[in-house]
Amino acid sequence: MGSIGWLWEQHQLLMHQCCSLPFAFLFYFLSKRRYLSLTYRYLFVSVGGCVLAVMTMGIYSLILFTSTFVFVLLVLSVDPGCVHVWAFGVQMLWQTFWHLFIQYKEYYLHEPVSIRLFLAASSLMLLTQRITSVSMDLQETQVLLTCNAITRRQSRVMILPLISYSLSFTTLLGGPLCSYSRFVLLMEGLGLSAPPSPLAVVLLKLVQVLLLEGVRWCLIYVLKHNAYDPMDSGVLCGVLWIWGLGLVFRIQYYSHWRISESLNNAAGFGFWEPSSGGSSEWSGLSDGDFWTTEASHRMSDFARRWNVTTALWLRRLVYTRCKHFPLFMSFGFSLWWHGLHLGHFVGFLTWAATVKADYHIHKHLGPEVSPAGRKIYSVLGWINTQMVVTCIAIAVEFRNMSGLRLLWGTYAGLFPLANITLLLILIKLQRHD
User: Fold this and answer.
1) What GO molecular function annotation could you give as one example from this UniProt entry (predicted)?
2) Which residues contact 181 (CB under 8 A, 6 or more apart)?
3) Distance CA 6, CA 172 (A)
4) Active-site residue, from 264, 307, 384, 419
5) Which of 228, 323, 353, 378 has its CA 20 to 30 A from that of 363?
6) CA torsion 221→292→172→350, rounded to 10°?
């Protein structure tokens, strides 16, 4: 019983997702056999999300229910062209209030914050993605919702898919972000021609999660038994130790993304069948692959591949709408969305600066590299990317000064500092030219 308790404590989010898998398979089976009409499919998904929220967050589940209720009211009462401004403003104010409340309890009252509140805040961030995604669709007329429904049936037909999309149990605790129109198509498609059984692919992805968590456990074991000591350890040992710690944090994200992807697949979502030949895949809903992302040898490539659906959401929400400094505005909004901790300020602004540096460095140095030196250039770029990403991950995950002191003490912080310094030099040279 002790080992089960330890497993639950260390992997609560993963375990909650795993416990939802049987219900996802049940939903897929009932939908495929046409035991559930479209209305009941929406009800199954939304009621399942409500039950999951109450079970995992307790009283704090009201945070999500309030947010969803207010959004539905806005959709019903505000003109589609203006609903995005209202939805974005209300949702971000609501989310910021709870993030600041957590900081108030942590830093001012010095009280431990309930894990249920952390789960609610994390789910609220994901709900913000879905709400603003729908509001942008309405603003851009990509989705049309008839707000002047006359009968009760017409009103239910409009509101139920919206609530199901917002509170779906498959995306309540983890991504990936799926557009509203695609969600509706997937729900309708389950009753017409359901995809093949996802059992094999879900089992394969669960094995991948176990392997990732096994690697993560081994890294934690090595780091604990070889703790970094600035007095005895050399610079290289410190850099390698900090790289291992950053990899531990990143693997945790890959595990959560893979289990969330598995949960969606188990419900019948994410099946992709190419129109022009090729093999069918269950990767239609994914936030990133470990090997593809970690193999990036440029910061700009890593930024695009890391948490793919969130990156696309930020691009649509901020980057394409900003006329001035879109890159820094995107990362600036990301730190606001993540919670406004000190580590978030340092981490995300460093990320923006190093991505900007990546564009300038490779623009100036890339053409100068000979074909023979291309592999060495790529390896050096990969090492630089790994260390910069490591510094960002540690700053963001520690959230306070302890992470920044650790980066400075191990000299790992010199990597992003060198990138930013080189960026300033190249910008100055460009102005002189």
Assistant:
1) serine O-acyltransferase activity
2) 137, 142, 143
3) 24
4) 307
5) 323
6) 80
CA distances from 77 to 12, 86, 342, 408 (A): 39, 11, 38, 52
User: Nearest CA to 116 among 46, 54, 169?
Assistant: 54
Q: Taking a C-beta distance cutoff of 8 angstroms, is the pair 213, 11 a contact?
A: yes
Q: Is 338 a catalytic residue?
A: yes
**Confidence band of 8 (pLDDT split at 50, 70, 90):** very low
Angle at 206 between CA 268 and CA 51, to 5 degrees: 55
Kindly give, in sequence order, each residue whose CB lies less than 8 Å from that of residue 135, ignoring residues fewer than 6 positions away: 71, 83, 84, 86, 87, 88
How many Cβ atoms from other residues are within 10 Å of residue 407's Cβ?
Answer: 25
Q: Which two tokens stand for residue 23?
A: 């219900």
Residue type, 97: F
Report the alpha-carbon distance of residue 355 to residue 300 in Å, rounded: 5
Q: What share of the chain is helix, strand, coil (3-state, %, to 5)?
A: 75, 0, 25
Is 364 in the active site?
Answer: no
Looking at residue 157, its pLDDT comes to: 62
CA pair distance 195, 250, nearest whole angstrom = 32
Helix or strand run (H / E) with residue 288: none
Q: Of 14-28, 37-51, 142-156, where does mean pLDDT reach its minimum?
A: 142-156
Both tokens of 187, joined, read 């729900």
Contact 344, 335 (CB under 8 A): yes
Is 200 within 8 Å of 26 (Cβ atoms)? no
Q: What is the pLDDT of residue 433?
A: 59
Give one word for 339, left, alpha or beta, with left for phi > 0 and alpha for psi -120 to 50.
Answer: left
Hey, what amino acid is at 147? Answer: C
SS (H, E, C) 334-380: HHHHHCCCHHHHHHHHHHHHHHHHHHHHHHHHHHHCCHHHHHHHHHH
The tokens for 71 are: 């959004």
| 209/177 Cα distance (integer angstroms) | 20
Q: How confident is the model at residue 154, as a pLDDT?
A: 52
Separation of alpha carbons 263 and 271, rounded Å: 12
Measuring CA to CA, which residue among 50, 78, 184 is closest to residue 135? 78
Q: How confident is the model at residue 95 (pLDDT cuts 50, 70, 90)?
A: very high
For the chain, the distance separating the N- and C-terminal CA atoms, rounded to the nearest angstrom, is: 69
CB 433 within 8 A of CB 288: no
- Rama region for 270: left / alpha / beta (φ>0; ψ in -120 to 50; rest): left
Domains of the chain, by residue range, sit at 8-192, 199-432
